[in-house]
Design brief:
It contains five helices and five strands; from the N terminus they run ββαβββαααα. By secondary structure, the chain is an alpha+beta fold. The protein has two domains: about 70 residues, Beta-grasp domain (Ubiquitin-like (UB roll)); about 80 residues, DNA polymerase, domain 1 (Orthogonal Bundle). The protein has a five-stranded mixed sheet with strand order 2-1-5-3-4, with helices on one face. Strand 3 and strand 4 form a beta hairpin. Helix 2 crosses helix 5. The longest helix is centred in the middle third of the chain and has 17 residues. The radius of gyration is 16 Å and the shape is globular. The model has no long low-confidence stretch (mean pLDDT about 90). It comes from Shinella curvata. This is 2Fe-2S iron-sulfur cluster-binding protein. InterPro entries: 2Fe-2S-bd, 2Fe-2S-bd_dom_sf, 2Fe-2S_ferredoxin-like_sf, 2Fe-2S_ferredoxin-type, 2Fe2S_fd_BS, Aldehyde_Oxdr_Iron-Sulfur, Beta-grasp_dom_sf.
């Protein structure tokens, strides 16, 4: 059994109890993905699984045989940040930075959800494939990622800029 992590084939641990988070941090030494609450409440461990956001602390590594995992280290390219990473820097979307990898991974997936027309709890028109991306819509979609420092204004500004640039 193997999974792809940031484009590299990785053997799934023999122990079926190993969480995806522990595989990433302890087995692969990818420390960008953070262990916050380890209960799925804070979003610090958010990674992308086949492009969709997933809480790695609540997921067992064996669940992902044949699938593709992208961590914060897998976004962008060497010497070139992903547009959302760059926007977080430019808009001070972080303070201590602990939640930032999960926030960015979640935002990357959220942007794709909006592009695909996936509704959220606050989407007003469920029959439309076009999401009116309001302030409330963004806050609802990012509500699973907490920031203890309260850098939400910078996070929202970074996401808004990236969405605006993607629409152009």
């Amino acid at each position: 059994m193997s999974i792809s992590v940031n484009g590299n084939a990785v053997q799934v641990p023999d122990d079926p109890r190993v969480s995806l988070l522990d595989l990433l941090r302890d087995g692969l030494h990818l420390h960008g993905t953070k262990k916050g609450c380890n209960q799925g409440a804070c979003g610090a461990c958010t990674v992308l699984v086949d492009g969709e956001r997933m809480l790695s602390c609540l997921s067992l590594a064996v669940q992902f045989d044949g699938r593709s995992i992208t961590t914060i280290e897998g976004l962008g390219e060497p010497g070139a940040l992903h547009p959302l990473q760059q926007a977080f820097v430019e808009h001070d979307g972080f303070q201590c930075g602990y939640c930032t990898p999960g926030q960015i991974c979640s935002a990357v997936a959220m942007v794709e959800e909006v592009r695909r027309g996936v509704p959220s709890h606050v989407t007003s028109d469920l029959n439309s494939n076009v999401i009116d991306f309001s302030h409330d819509e963004m806050r609802e979609r990012m509500s699973g990622n907490l920031c203890r420092c309260g850098a939400y204004n910078g996070i929202i500004d970074a996401i808004n800029e990236t969405l605006k640039e993607a629409a152009e």
